[in-house]
Amino acid sequence: MANAFFSDLLATISERGRTLLRRGDSADTKQDADGxxxxxxxxxxxxxxxxxxxxxxxxxxxxxxxxxxxxxAFFEGLVRDFGPDRERLSKAIEKWxxxxxDEDASALHFAxxxxxxxxxxxxxxxxxxxxxxVAMRADLLGMMNGxxxxxxxxxxxxxxxxxxxxxxxxxxxxxxxSTPANILEKIIRYEAVHEISDWDDLRRRIDPxxxxxxxxxxxxxxxxPLIFVEVALTETIPGAIAPLLAVDRQHLSIAKxxxxxxxxxxxxxxxxxxxxxxxxxxxxxxxxxxxxLPKLDTFVTLSPVPGFMPWIRQDKDLPxxxxxxxxxxxxxxxxxxxxxxxTAQLRGVIExxxxxxFLKARTPKGRLIDSVARFHLGxxxxxxxxxxxxxxxxxxxxxxxxxxxxxxxxxxxxxKNHEAYANDGEVVASSAVRKLLKGEGRRLLDMxxx
Length: 450
Description:
Blueprint: H1 2-24, H2 33-43, H3 49-65, H4 68-81, H5 86-98, H6 102-112, H7 115-124, H8 129-144, H9 151-164, E1 171-174, H10 181-190, H11 199-206, E2 211-217, E3 227-234, H12 242-245, E4 259-267, H13 281-292, E5 298-301, H14 308-314, H15 322-328, H16 340-359, H17 371-378, E6 382-387, H18 394-400, E7 404-408, H19 414-424, H20 431-438, H21 440-449
Parallel strand pairs: 4-5
Antiparallel strand pairs: 1-2, 2-3, 3-4, 6-7
Helix pairs in contact: 1-3, 2-3, 2-4, 5-6, 7-9, 8-9, 16-20, 16-21
């Protein structure tokens, strides 16, 4: 109710401001990038609250009418014309050099801020401005595509979005069959891990007694889930996704549930890519589940490994023998998983490779290659288990040769695991996973097969 009242109030202020603008401006605003840049300059010139809010809304509306070329020209104009005030910055630098103190340091800090940051803040005051800025950044990311000419603008936008979307502002809400249809439709559309085929499929995931779904929302985007988590309640830790999604599965009595499985976590807003919502989001979901179901004692994920097969195919320095490389060629057979001998041989190669992928493989900047691993380890989880043939869907076979993993969230260890990863880059993993890396897992597998 409070959010709705505030939104209505902003809309009223904006509309009255539009009236003032219409009275004061004799010529229509140019509907192109140059005209939009001029309007942004006027917005920064310091008008009253009502006209400023209306002008911000006008900027955002005109931007939405631009084509791709016009939007790029607008972004280039923001980079070119809305950097720091160079004269003011030079004076602040000289004053700091002459007499460095806290006051001069503060003045230097504010003088160095690009003018576009204040522009973005003023655009955010418009009704619906936050969501429009998130969508605008999605356009910006699409246009950067490895180019650096717009990088300065993206740094400014992401800097502000990181402040506005930190965890303290996010609200956790349960999604169930009584949730408004416009939000449920977005859950279907945004599901990025295991596609939701239709409304019946959605209902199977959120309505049964042994299923839960939670979403994080921002007060400025009350109908837009930012990230949502689908949960299955089970007796034990699962190693495969198909039984959890089966149409004809038997529902589990809550009295028997001891494990909560986070089997799908989807980020929904491309414009928030690279913006950290903070660590411990999953911990918040865990605590919510424990309040409702105190008998739950195990909290794990059943996670995909979307970058595993691309890594295998692109990395020429894999720890493989010639024999191993020949075995990997059997993955080219689209039905390889139906042959027991082939699957046994591939398992002996792929499981140790997966352990190496999670524990040793890094990007040139020293980060873990796998984005899912970065998310869960950053949230304080432990890499618990590598699951062979956990996902036999076409997508799972294509992206990870069917491999899935379990990350374990143990409440007493979450902060400690997070610190180990955040400070030292340490991957906290179970002994079973580490044995695979050392080759012990493969040796034991060979013994079982002999």
